[in-house]
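Why should sequence recovery work at all? Because a backbone constrains its sequence more than one might expect. Tight turns favour small or flexible residues, buried strands favour hydrophobic ones, and helices have their own preferences. The token representation captures these environments compactly. In the example below, the structure is given first.
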């Protein structure tokens, strides 16, 4: 199964996640970290990034919906699975696969800040440049990309292509 042209290769992704993990380790030195993955897309990013974080790390997950089976966000965010862990007083790293419009991640960050974590930062593999409808501060970003619809490495179209080891541009005829 292929998804059009390769935008970011497997080796590039691995190298960038290693760099991000090393930076997170430096930034949180001496602290324990709760890494929260936003399902489903972030599971691959979270797993590979976490392997490069040299700190005591716990994991939790949230699931949200803002796309359905469309290629553009609906703008309506629903929490499908909330955290199992309390985050008050804890250092939280929210891991996402992609920041597109910013609406979903802005909603999540605002919701989680109400729970009074010691800190909360965002790590994402991809940021779509000039696409944010709301400003989102991304502390750890892997790559900036254009407006193409991308799949692979956890990102999907209609639940397909998540297992690709690279980021590919989904061609229009594949939709």
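From this structural description, the recovered sequence reads:
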């Amino acid at each position: 199964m292929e998804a059009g042209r390769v935008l970011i290769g497997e080796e590039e992704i691995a190298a960038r996640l290693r760099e991000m993990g090393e930076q997170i380790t430096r930034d949180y030195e001496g602290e324990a970290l709760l890494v929260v993955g936003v399902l489903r897309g972030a599971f691959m990013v979270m797993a590979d990034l976490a392997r490069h974080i040299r700190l005591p790390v716990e994991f939790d997950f949230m699931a949200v919906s803002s796309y359905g089976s469309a290629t553009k966000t609906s703008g309506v965010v629903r929490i499908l699975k909330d955290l199992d862990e309390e985050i008050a007083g804890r250092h939280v790293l929210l891991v996402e696969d992609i920041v597109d419009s910013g609406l979903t991640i802005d909603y999540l960050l605002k919701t989680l800040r109400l729970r009074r974590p010691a800190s909360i930062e965002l790590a994402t593999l991809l940021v779509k440049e000039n696409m944010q409808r709301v400003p989102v501060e991304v502390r750890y970003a892997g790559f900036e990309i254009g407006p193409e619809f991308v799949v692979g490495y956890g990102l999907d179209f209609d639940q397909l292509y998540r297992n690709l080891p690279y980021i590919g541009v989904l061609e229009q005829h594949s939709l």
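A few observations help interpret the result. The chain has a mean pLDDT of 89.
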